UniProtKB/TrEMBL annotation:
Residues 1-27 form the signal peptide. Keywords: Signal. This is S-layer protein. The keyword Signal applies. Gene3D superfamilies: 2.30.30.170. InterPro entries: GW_dom_sf.
Length: 328
């Protein structure tokens, strides 16, 4: 009786279209994640100096375009924003490739000037502008150059450097992979070289000012030097009785007052109006802005100390005597 009832129920349900296969299910697959794909990837060929940028901090740096399968973060947007504000060599960035995706997004491949970070970053929706995670950045700003006729030379401290960190092909840290001039290896070779300044710029990252040089010395012509490494090349005056005073150092040891051997110096004023017999007053200075007495003190012979001036009111064409004693 039970079997007959079950059979009847099954037939009835089948007639109504309500049958189901016991224990059978059909699972609907989950939708696969859709990744972007690259439609263009090209080397940038415009003037490299127009492709200097800095990070905005709005987007992260990736190993590949951020919406591609397998893209990994190299540095977060927050980290890049901090780097941009640090004002170091790593704060300046060069863009050198551009890629677009099928979604219309533009990504730039960039590298920091110090080489520490390299990767892809979102750059907006136009290949003609920098946007998103990067923005154009001027690595130099125009500064006031000295008079174009003024002659300069390298300071002694720069000439004494054993490696060239003085003469550059571009101001330091303002262009990617452009630094100190590699062909200049011995700065002492340029002790007599003079030059004028054709342009001055400031690096806004460190506020240093750089001069571009014009020189008859081909090694220096067109190069860049930090403002602090140059000094005005003052023309040497010809010593005459009208503009110079001989400084004689007298050794006061045991009251002898004999001239110190080979210690005489010549003070020469830059003033062109003086005449022989005129008192060499303190208002008359030499090329180093020293008066006669300051000059005499500065050039006391090695191994001696200053005692006093042997005569007052020394005159041009005459002699300034200086008493010294051997240092104890």
């Amino acid at each position: 009786m039970k079997h007959t009832l079950k059979t009847s129920l099954f037939v009835g349900l089948a007639a109504l279209g309500l049958t189901a296969v016991v224990g059978s299910t059909t699972a609907k697959p989950a939708a696969a994640k859709l990744y972007a794909r690259i439609t263009s990837n090209q080397q940038l060929t415009t003037d490299p100096t127009t492709r200097n940028v800095t990070f905005t901090g709005n987007n992260a740096l990736y190993t590949k375009a951020g919406t591609l399968r397998g893209a990994r973060i190299i540095a977060s947007g927050t980290s890049l924003g901090t780097l941009a504000a640090a004002n170091t060599a790593g704060s300046n960035v060069r863009a050198y490739r551009v890629a677009t995706t099928n979604r219309g997004s533009v990504y730039y491949k960039v590298v920091t000037f110090d080489g520490q970070y390299r990767g892809w970053i979102y750059g907006g929706t136009s290949t003609g502008t920098f946007g998103g995670g990067i923005t154009p950045y001027a690595t130099t700003q125009d500064a006031t150059a000295p008079d174009a006729k003024t002659q300069f030379k390298l300071i002694d401290g720069a000439l004494a450097e054993t490696t060239n960190q003085v003469v550059y092909d571009a101001p330091a840290n303002t262009q990617y992979q452009v630094g100190a001039t590699p062909t200049i290896t011995n700065l002492a070779n340029y002790k007599d070289a003079t030059f004028t300044v054709t342009k001055a710029v400031t690096n806004p990252r460190d506020n240093t000012t750089w001069y571009q040089l014009a020189s008859s010395n081909a090694d220096l012509n067109g190069k860049w030097v930090n403002k602090g490494n140059v000094t005005e090349a003052k023309p040497a005056n010809t010593n005459t009785s009208d503009n110079s005073v001989t400084v004689v150092y007298l050794d006061g040891e045991n009251g002898t007052n004999n001239p110190v051997d080979k210690a005489n110096q010549t003070f020469t004023t830059t003033d062109t109006s003086t005449k022989a017999g005129q008192v060499a007053a303190s208002s008359f200075v030499n090329a180093d802005k020293l008066s006669l007495q300051d000059f005499a003190k500065k050039h006391v012979p090695a191994g001696y100390t200053f005692v006093s001036f042997g005569n007052d009111n020394a005159v041009f064409g005459g002699t300034q005597y200086v008493a010294v004693v051997k240092a104890k």
